[in-house]
Amino acid sequence: MHKRLPFISALLLALFLLPGCAPKIKIFASPATEPLKEYVVDGTDKGKIALIHLRGFLSTEPAQGMLRSQPSAVQEMVNNLKLAEADDEVGAVVVAIDSPGGTATASDVLYHELTDFKKRTGKPVVVAMFDVAASGGYYAALPADWIVAHPTTITGSVGVVFMRPKLNGLMDKVGVGVEVSKSGRDKDMGSPFRPTTEEEKALFQGIIDDMAARFYSLVQAHRHLTPANLETVKTARVFTANQALTIGLVDQIGYVQDAFAKARSLAGLAPDCTVVTYRRDLYPDDNPYNTMDAAEPFKPSLLGVDASFILPPRAGFCYVWEGGVTR
């Protein structure tokens, strides 16, 4: 029996290599079957600002649990925007972003949904960045009329990464192989079961360059950077709030209350207008920092301890800052 253990270990490892950039399986997920309801988190005067949280790894796929699924970050954002659009009293939206990014498609869908929301409603959108608003998290912020970075925010990482785990070394050691029959020369390009050829590396780089070019063009269209600053941004480095302000990626350094103030100013709302958010549960002593109903990133747990480190990365093209994924 012990001779089969290496093969079983390799097989279990391979199960995590389905397409995507982050694990999608979740043992337990918070209840998500109740409809979203409006709750006041700040202010008392007439008129409303809708506060929407965008957190964690950005994906179009829900986290699957044994009991129920949890909405994806994209699904939850769209749900919130629909409620804000349908309420004539809502004059502006503040999107609180704390995300290292995610899949290229999820990031682009969020950008599209916020852009369309502004076109349909004419309601201004202000972004408030928290710990991290990098890569796809920054991509999603681009349609905003004003971007406020917290004094300790990390942002930037404008670029694309293609993560693809490799098992061929492990499989060689345990004596396991994979036989492939294919219709075309490049049908299995990116396979984890063999080394990547030089030709395949060039093909992948072409895809990455194309996706990155879209990201760069959107940054330039919204932020109007100088040529020198755009070249710095293209290095895909991350920036502190002060650095991001200097280079032109954000408009202001402040706190979420400053984002509320800017939203009130842009929408012509009263200085103490109501700030509302949309949740599925009532929380006593609620406030703008409560993110309990925001879509959560996948974090496998062992007896309540984050066990993300035991899982391999998943293959996929991502607008993501890898340094912020396992926070």
Automatic annotation (TrEMBL):
Q: Which GO terms describe its molecular function?
A: serine-type peptidase activity
Q: Record's superkingdom?
A: Bacteria
E.C. number: 3.4.21.-
Pfam families documented for this protein: Peptidase_S49 (PF01343)
Does the keyword section mention Acetylation? no
Please list the GO biological process terms of this entry: proteolysis
Keyword Signal belongs to the record: no
* Residue ranges of every copy of the Peptidase S49 domain listed in the record: 119-269
Gene3D superfamilies, A to Z? 2-enoyl-CoA Hydratase, Chain A, domain 1, 6.20.330.10
CDD domains in the record: S49_Sppa_N_C (cd07023)
Q: What enzyme category does the UniProt record give?
A: hydrolase
Family under the similarity heading? Belongs to the peptidase S49 family.
User: Any idea what this protein is called?
Assistant: Putative signal peptide peptidase SppA
- The organism named in the record is Pseudodesulfovibrio hydrargyri
What gene makes this protein?
A: sppA_1
